[in-house]
Amino acid sequence: MGSMHYRSDIDGLRAIAIIPVVLFHLGASAFSGGFVGVDIFFVISGFLITSIIFQEMEQGHFSFAQFYERRIRRLFPALFFVVIVVVIAGAFLFVPGDFRSLSQSIVAATAFSANLLFWDQSGYFDASAAMKPLLHTWSLSVEEQFYIGYPVILLLLIRFLPKHLSAVLILIMLVSFVSSITIVYYSQDSAFYLPIFRAWELLLGALIALNFIPSPQTNYQRHLLSLLGFSLILYAVFVLSEESLFPGVNAVYPCLGAALIIYAGNGGHPSIVGKLLGWRPFVMTGLISYSLYLWHWPLIVFTKYYLMRELIPVEQLTVLIISILLALFSWRYIERPFRGKSGLLTTPRLFKVSAALMVVFIAAGLAGHFTYGFSQRMPEEVEKLAETVHKPYPLRSLEDKKIQANGGKIFALGDFDHISPSYLVWGDSHAWALGPALDEVGKKEKKAGWLISHNGCPSLLGVNLFESGAIKNACADSNVAVVNFIENNPEIRTVFLVARWGVYANGTRLSGEKKPPVVLTADGVKYNEKIFQKGLEDTLSFLESRNIKTYFVSDVPAIGWDVPSILLRSKLFERNPPYTPPLLEEYQARQSPVNDALGMYRNMQFQTIDVSPLFCPTGQCLVESEGGLLYRDDNHLSIFGAHFASRLFEGLM
Asked: So which domain of life are we looking at (predicted)?
C-alpha cells in the first residue's frame, strides 16, 4: 500500500452523509431515510483509519498510544464542549425526570457506551428517544468500541497471517453481516446499536483500504461504479423510512454505495462522482461534518422541548442555520487547534486532561442520576409534583430461574415475610406498574402474593409477539413458566390478570406513539383479535380448572404523550399543556375488541375490574389528581398513580 494521500471526494462524501442526517432529524419528509448517513460515516471511518494504521504497521512504527492520541484529538475537544453546553442548557430547561435521563446519557457518552444505554432504554425512533440531547453519540460509541479490538486484530494478522489478511477480515465481515440481517428480525434495537452487528460496515471500508480488489483500470469503470454507488445512497436516503426494517439488508444500500464511491476513487484517478464531491461547498461541509453532527441534534431537542411541539419550517431553517454557524465555530476554534502532534496540549497533558474531564463528567452524571435530576433546582411547585412521579417503586425482587429464564421478573407483594402468599398478579409492564397498588392493599389487609411480569408479553396462554413475520420474543414460553409456577404453588387462590389489553387486541398504538404495531401472528394485525380471543379463552379455562378466583383488570387509559414531561414543563414554562387527555369514549372505543372477547366468555368464572370510573370520572380521563401525577410516561402508572388505583382492589384478596 502506498502512502495515504488527501482525497477531497471523501470529505465530499462526508457531506453526503451529514446533510441527510440533519435534514431527517429536522423533519424534512423528503429525506425519510436520512438516518443512513451514519452508515456512510462508518464506511468512511473504516477506510481512512485502516489506510493510516495499516501503513504504519507495515512500516513497523505503529503505536497504540499514538493511535488513541489521534482519536482523542479528533473526537474529545468538540464532544466535551458540546457536552458542557448540553449540561448547562439541560439544567435550565429540563424537568427532573428528563434531567436524570440526560445525566445517564452524559455518563454513557463520556464512557463511549451510549449505544449500550440507548439499546437498553428504547429504540432510536421512539418518541422518548427524540427528547434525548445526546442520543446521537451512540454512533461514536460504536466506532470507539470497534477500535478497541480492531487494531489488535489487524496487527496480529499482519504478523502471523499476512497472506490471509483480507480473507480473515472478509470472514469476520460476513459473520457480522449475516448476524445483522438475522438478528434484525428478532431485535431491531440490538441490530441497530450493538457493535458486533455494525462491524461489517466499518470492515467494508477497511477492505477497500487494503486493496483486496485491484483499483479500477479505466475511466469507464470508475464512472460507472461511482454512479452506481451514488444511486444506491440516493435510494436509501429517499426511499427508506422509519418503517423500514433497519439496519439488516437495507443497510447494504448506503454502505455499498459509499464503498463503491471510495473504491472508484482509488488509484489517484477521480471518478465523475468524485469530481462532483470535490466541489468546494461539499468539501467544506464535509470538513465541519463532525461538529455539525454533534451540534444539530441537541439544538433540535432543546428547541422542541421548550416549544413542546414539532418545529414549523421557519424554526427548522433557524435551527439549521444556527447548527451550521456553531459547527463552523467548533471546527475552526475547537477541533483544529487540537489536531496533530503540534496541537494544543502535549501528549502527556492531553491524556491527563482528558481523563480528568471524563471523571468530572461521569461524577456529575452519576450525581444527576442519584438525585433524580437535581430536583431541588426547580420551583417548589414543580419539585413537589415531580416527587409524586420519581419515587422508586417499593417492590422487592425475588429469584426464580424458571421465571427469569424467559425474560420474566418476579416480585414479593404484601406482607410477604409474615403471611403465606395467596394471590398472584400476572402480566406485562402494566402489571409491574400496578404492582405497588396490590402491594399496598396486601399489606393493609395482611395478605401476601407474587407479581410476575414480562415486558411486552400479555398474560394470555399460547400468544407470542411477531415482528416482520418472525417471533420477536418467547412470550408463550414465559407464560408456560407462569402456569408451572401456579401448579407448583397450590396456595395461590386469587389471580389478577393485568396487561395493556387494547394494544394486543387492536395491534395498533395511539398516534403519538412512535413504536411499531404489536402483532400476534406472522400474518399481521388483522388476526390479532382472533388470537387474543383464543389466548383469553385458554387462560381463563386454565385458571377455572384450578378453581382460582380470577380478576381481569381492564387497561388504564393510554394517554399518548409523556405526562410528567409535558405537565411539568407546562408549569415550569408557565404555559398551557399543548395536549389534552383522551375522552372516555375514545378509551372505550380502544377497548371494544377486548370487551367483545370478554363477552364471549361471560359464562366462565372470572370478574372484570373496570378502571374507567376511577380514571375517567367526568367523561375525560385523568392524568393528575389529588396533587399528584398518575403516569410515569404516556401509558404506565406512576407510583402515585398506583396508590390512586389501590382502592379498586380493597377486599378482593
From this structure: Bacteria
330 and 468 share one domain: no
Average pLDDT over residues 177-202: 94
Q: Which of 361, 365, 302 is nearest to 103 (CA)?
A: 365
Residue 174's H or E segment, with its range, is helix 165-183
Residue 124 confidence class, pLDDT cut points 50, 70, 90: very low
Do 651 and 584 meet the contact criterion of CB atoms below 8 Å apart?
A: no
Report which DSSP code applies to 637. Answer: B
Phi/psi region, residue 561 (left: phi>0; alpha: psi -120 to 50; beta: rest), is beta
Please state, in angstroms and rounded to a whole number, the distance separating the CA atoms of residues 449 and 451: 7
177 with 285, same domain? yes
Write out the H or E segment, with its range, that includes residue 644.
Answer: helix 639-645
Residue whose C-alpha is closest to residue 496's, from 429, 444, 550, 538: 550
**Cell numbers found for residue 115:** 449505544
Q: Where are the alpha helices (H) located in 27-63, listed in sequence order?
A: 37-59
Question: Would the pTM of this model clear 0.85, i.e. be above it?
Answer: yes
∠ CA 547-553-556, rounded to 5°: 170
Q: Is 641 helix (H, G, I), strand (E, B) or coil?
A: helix
Higher pLDDT, 60 or 302: 302
According to the model, what pLDDT value does residue 473 have?
64
Last residue of a domain, one of 350, 376, 402: 376
Q: DSSP letter string over 235-301?
A: HHHHH--TTS-TTGGGGHHHHHHHHHHHHHTGGG---HHHHHHTSHHHHHHHHTHHHHHHHHHHHHH
Distance CA 461, CA 486 (A): 13
SS3 97: helix
Q: Could you give the angle at the alpha carbon of 571 between the alpha carbons of 565 and 574, nearest 5°?
A: 125
What pLDDT sits at residue 2?
45
Looking at the structure, tell me whether residues 490 and 630 fall in a common domain. Answer: yes
Reduce the DSSP state of residue 346 to 3 states and report it. Answer: coil
Residue 563: CA count within 13 A, CB half-sphere:
29
What band does 617 get if pLDDT is binned at 50, 70 and 90? very high
420, 326: one domain: no
**What is the CB neighbour count within 10 angstroms for residue 505?**
30
Q: Please tell me the distance from the alpha carbon of residue 188 to that of residue 185, in angstroms, as a whole number.
A: 6
The domain in which residue 322 lies consists of 8-54+61-291+299-376
472-482 confidence digits (pLDDT tens): 667 889 999 99
Dihedrals φ, ψ of 530, to 5°? -65, -45
Nearest alpha carbon to residue 263 among 312, 303, 223: 223
How many residues would you count in the chain? 653
Query: Which is higher by pLDDT, 524 or 370?
Result: 370
In whole angstroms, what is the distance from residue 597 CA to residue 538 CA? 12
